[in-house]
Each structure stands twice: as C-alpha cells, then as structure tokens.
Amino acid sequence: MSDELQQLEQWITPLINKLSPKERRLLAREVARDLRLANRNRIKAQTNPDGTPFEPRTQLRGRSGAIRRKAMFSKISTAKYLRIKTNADAAEVGFLGQVARIARVHHYGLRDRVERGGPIHQYARRELIGITAADADHIGNSVLNHLTPPK
C-alpha cells in the first residue's frame, strides 16, 4: 500500500505545486472531507483498511449485554470526534483529546485499563484510520477535477 501512496504523491506533487496557496488549502479541505467520510463509512462497516473485519469484542466474564451487541466505535466516527485539519501544505484526519487516546489503543492493539481503576486489558488491533486503494484513486480524481477548468 505504501508503494501506491508514494506513486500517488510523486504524480500529484508537481500538479499541486502549480496551485496558489488558497487553492491548495481548498483542495486539501476537499480531500480531507472525502477521507473523513470514507473512514467513517469504513468504521461503521467495522472493517480495517485492508478489507478484513474488525476482531470482535472479547467476552468479559461471559457478559453479553446490550453494549456488547452494539457496533463498536459508533460515536467515535462522528464529525465531532473524527476531525480534519488542513492548510496549504497538508490535510490531516484524526481524533482529538480523550477520544484520540482510546482510538490509539484500538488502532495499534495496545494495553489499557477497561475503566478508571479497572483491570488492564490487551485490546485487539483495529485500524480505525487508513487509506485504501479506492481512497487513493478518489484523491487522484479529486485533484484532477480541481485542476480541470470549468466549462
């Protein structure tokens, strides 16, 4: 996947450098919005960027209540928590504050407390943010559409 991103970057960089800073900022905002939407849809579908499903929750002492039946990360994928940050040189999609810590634990499969003062648990790796091949194609198309003069 990183090879595709490097190829995309090499192809897009000369085209973007020809734009004014204001146009680059607008393009970055558009690309970031599209990436946020794609990542939000992927999180709602409970899939990793490579298309594999998220590993299901582990059973904690045999409990299977209403919380365990709901989809994971239902609130974390909203625009309130999944934020975009853009300028003329970059577009970022990520989480803020306490939600960023929770997302990092799940994204990398780290150990963390289940609740404040609770037991420590090894969480499964669930990649919340990523760029798929379809996202890279969509970015390329967005750049071309932005560069194409209106008719």
Describe the structure concisely for a colleague.
The chain is mainly alpha-helical. The chain is 47% helix and 11% strand.
Helix % is 40-55%
Shape: elongated
> What integer is the average pLDDT?
86
Distance between the termini: 35 Å
Largest sheet: 2 strands, antiparallel
Q: Which percent range describes the beta-strand content?
A: 5-15%
What is the structural class? mainly alpha
Word description of this protein:
By secondary structure, the chain is mainly alpha-helical. Helix content is 47%, strand content 11%. It contains five helices and four strands, in the order αααββαββα. The protein has a two-stranded antiparallel ribbon with strand order 1-2. A two-stranded antiparallel sheet has the order 3-4. β1 and β2 form a beta hairpin. α1 packs parallel to α5 and α2 packs antiparallel against α5. It is elongated, with a radius of gyration of 18 Å. The model has no long low-confidence stretch (mean pLDDT 86).
